[in-house]
Amino acid sequence: MELQGRPADTTPMTTDDARPAAPFGRALCAMVTPFTASGALDLEGARRLAEHLVSRGCDGLVLSGTTGESSTTTDAEKAALVTAVREAVGDRAALVAGVGTADTRHTVELALAAEKAGADGVLVVAPYYSRPPQDALEAHFREVADASGLPVMLYDIPGRTGTRIEPDTLVRLAEHPRIVAVKDCSYDLLGTQKVLSRTDLAYYAGCDEQVLALYALGAAGCVSTVANVVPGLFPSVLGAFDAGDTGRAAVLQRRALPLVESMTVAGLPGTVTAKALLGALGLPAGPVRGPLRPADRETTTGLLAAYEELAALAGQSQE
């Protein structure tokens, strides 16, 4: 029996249907903040790591985000990090500086400092602990966006902040000329689609296991923790999708699952796992700052095995 229904819609896409512009690039790395063995900020290590990431496919870097240990770095360290990384990568990658705090005034101060240090944009997380209602949350973001000339990427990660940036709030905030993007760690696929369908906000998948899924729905790209150790992974996934080879894009995304799971879903914060792997690979990272603790040897061995398995598969696919 045939199902009766309307004929397939063959209307050409309009400009309103197109993917929003990617204001900060497409494949961004949520870069760790390298420290020396004594725990001091390692600016030379940050320069080397940034150069490594950009030369291998990342066209944007998020500094002092969750993975960058923003909660345990000082204001001066945050500004110095932006300046050092800008010196290393020049204009080859967009730099988005994490400036979110639990205090609106402090967040504004950090946004102004990031602008002065040379950032291209700011990442602003929902204020944590105080759990403001949506009207207060909206006012907070508007005040930060008004304070500097930098474009703003909102950071929706209720699992850490305790507060969701609700879809209707995002739709209203999209009217602000400097609020241009969202880093999406909401795990709300329905809500994300609502905002995508009603605004021109550039969505960036903030959870590595969702990169291809959100990109297929119209996201601009990703902000990846796993990119610290495999910077070319998601440029390959997104490139395959853009080329129309959606099957290959899916294969590449699935191949990365063991590494993604072990780095971001298996219990330890991504900062801990990324720094453990970077250290094992001889790249700048250093220790984590308390209250975080370093990965133990068994965990690091498992992470390295997942990394080597993915590297072997990538090598086979290029033969």
UniProtKB/TrEMBL annotation:
PANTHER family: 4-HYDROXY-2-OXOGLUTARATE ALDOLASE, MITOCHONDRIAL, DIHYDRODIPICOLINATE SYNTHASE. Homotetramer; dimer of dimers. PROSITE patterns: DHDPS_1 (PS00665), DHDPS_2 (PS00666). The record marks T66, Y129 as: Part of a proton relay during catalysis. Keywords: Amino-acid biosynthesis, Cytoplasm, Diaminopimelate biosynthesis, Lyase, Lysine biosynthesis, Schiff base. Its EC number is 4.3.3.7. It comes from Streptomyces hyderabadensis. InterPro entries: Aldolase_TIM, DapA, DapA-like, Schiff_base-form_aldolases_AS, Schiff_base-form_aldolases_CS. It catalyses: L-aspartate 4-semialdehyde + pyruvate = (2S,4S)-4-hydroxy-2,3,4,5-tetrahydrodipicolinate + H2O + H(+). The gene is dapA_2. This is 4-hydroxy-tetrahydrodipicolinate synthase.
